[in-house]
Amino acid sequence: MIRLFDTATGEVRPLRQRREGEVSMYVCGPTVYGPPHLGHGRFALVFDVLRRYLMWCGTEVVYVSNITDVDDKIIDRAAREGTSPEEVARHWEDVWWGAMDRIGVLRPTADPHATAYIDDMVTLVGDLIERGAAYVLADGIYFDTSSVADYGLLARQDLESLQAGARVDVDDTKRSPTDFALWKLAKVGEPAWDSPWGPGRPGWHTECVVMSLDLLGPGFDLHGGGQDLAFPHHENERAQAVAGGETFAGHWMHNGFVEVAGEKMAKSLGNFTDLADLCDRHDPRAFRLLVLRSHYRSPVEVSDTSAADASRALERLDAFARRVGEITGAATVPDPATLDSFRALMDDDLDTPGVMDLVFTSVRRVNAMLDDGDRDAAAPLAAAVLEVCGAMGLDVHAAADGDVPAVMADLARRRDEARAARDFALADSLRDQIQAQGWVVEDTATGTAIRRS
Ligand SMILES: [Zn+2]
Predict the structure, then answer these.
(1) Confidence band of 249 (pLDDT split at 50, 70, 90)
(2) Using an 8 Å Cβ cutoff, are 281 and 304 in contact?
(3) Closest CA to 250 of 277, 279, 212, 286
(4) Distance, CA 184 to ligand 1 centroid (Å)?
(5) String of b and e for 279-299 (b: at least 16 CB within 10 Å)?
(6) Inter-helix orientation angle 406-420/304-324, to 10°
(7) DSSP code for 438
């Protein structure tokens, strides 16, 4: 059974499953108002790796991840651009899914949108007021954090020390600095929905508790997100569930930050924290490899140097796949000992750095065996390497030498997408990028074909 660190208990413990053979998980998705950055990419990759591993083990995974499509930041951007919040949210959601596809993240089982759940949120807020866990102020409805006995569980602090550390705004009328808005009454011109307290919109923390319980039911198995969400976002979700008498997530999993290398580089590159930018500059698989090489609770450092290093490691894996292509096939049974080691590493709080060591050590062993002409010994181990890479979502290309490398194939795919969307300026610029790297671009019936010039 897989063991994972649980933020609520502060220890690594078995992931208890509500139903055998199934894991239900909710991962907080993006607020869609701008381009996804590396932090978004990391949480998406960490939970994608967990999901894929569970699936590889034969577990059915119900993976819910929301889209926050109503938020102050969306409203502000729409006002700045002279467009509507709906338009802003729609555009940046498209960009989000495009970026997720590029880094190979599987689409969620369900992707609930906040605006589709407003009625349920209004019901919850009304219920919390009735239970004495929420109160009405001039600008909205607030949750009373003192109504939950163990408030602060996910912050690993008690209410008193959280209150002492909280920032207090001058115009705050809340009873306590840790109290938070459940419902914000609308100002003129803001998007608004009817409620018994007047037109307004839900607070962010209310959205996730309502959608996770609706789609996964009480006591679902795992709730996850970046470590910056543990407090206050997840704590506030949990507090509403507790105050509403619901059993909430059984396990809380949070991933570490992304660190972008030295100040000098950040300054000279400006937008290096942009996920699409990283995929443009390097093999789009490189970020997954960097994420796998770090433990999910540790920071991962992303720089041009580390991404280039990861890209070279991927080239070695591709070369390996080509070399072993002849000796492995569907009939080759992967080496059981290697798969056992893989399982043991993953079950121990997702030791993906250990898994990557296992992969690259095995690659060297297979190469040595093949150098010695020992194909029979090499085949099962090679098949195990390919099996593990597949389970981690690392797409290894076994294409023959001279075939199109991943970066170029990605540019060609994006050119086809741009043409389909009739964005010919972008399509032309992508063609120029492909040609600049020494490739010939041809239009065929099946889309862009490229070959070395
Ligand atoms: Zn959330």
Answers:
(1) very high
(2) yes
(3) 212
(4) 17
(5) bbbbbbbbbbbbbbbbbbbee
(6) 100
(7) T
Residue 414 CA to ligand 1 centre (angstroms) = 31
Q: Residue range 412-418: average pLDDT?
A: 89
Ligand 1 centroid to 212 CA: how many Å? 9
How many A from CA of 334 to the centre of ligand 1?
39
Ordered structural domains, the chain, with CATH: 22-255 (3.40.50.620), 258-391 (1.20.120.640)
Tell how far the Cα of 26 is from the centroid of ligand 1, in angstroms: 8
Structure tokens at 5: 């660190």
Residue 396: Cβ within 10 Å count: 18
**How much distance in Å is there from the Cα of 65 to the middle of ligand 1?**
9
Contacts of 345 (CB under 8 A, 6+ apart): 351, 352, 354, 355, 358
- Using a pLDDT cut of 70, give the percent of the chain over it: 96
- Interval between CA 64 and ligand 1 midpoint (Å): 11
Q: Tell me how far apart the alpha carbons of residues 350 and 153 are, in angstroms, rounded to a whole number.
A: 23
332-375 pLDDT tens trace? 999 999 999 999 999 999 999 999 999 999 999 999 999 999 99
Q: What number is the average pLDDT over the span 221-244?
A: 97
CB 416 within 8 A of CB 447: yes
Distance 41 CA to ligand 1 centre (A): 16
- Quote the ligand 1 centre to 28 CA distance (angstroms): 4
Cα 11 to ligand 1 centre (Å): 22
419 contacts 427 by C-beta, under 8 angstroms: yes
Alpha carbon distance 159, 165 (integer Å): 10
Q: At what angle do helices 352-371 and 336-347 cross, to 10 degrees?
A: 160
> Among residues of the chain, what percentage have pLDDT more than 90?
75
Q: Which is it for strands 258-260 and 300-302: parallel, antiparallel or unpaired?
A: parallel
Mean pLDDT check: name the lowest of 25-34, 299-308, 400-409.
Answer: 400-409
Q: How far is the CA of 246 from the centre of ligand 1 (A)?
A: 17
In this predicted model, what pLDDT tens digit does every residue of 50-80 receive, in sequence order?
999 999 999 999 999 999 999 999 999 999 9
- Going from the Cα of 152 to the center of ligand 1, the distance in angstroms, rounded, reads 17
In the structure, what pLDDT confidence band is assigned to residue 170 with cuts at 50, 70 and 90?
A: low
39 CA → ligand 1 middle, Å: 15
- Whole-number Å distance, alpha carbon 108 to ligand 1 midpoint, is 15
Angstrom distances, CA of residue 117 to CA of 126, 127, 235, 243: 15, 16, 20, 20
Has residue 263 got a pLDDT over 50?
A: no
Q: How far is the CA of 62 from the centre of ligand 1 (A)?
A: 17
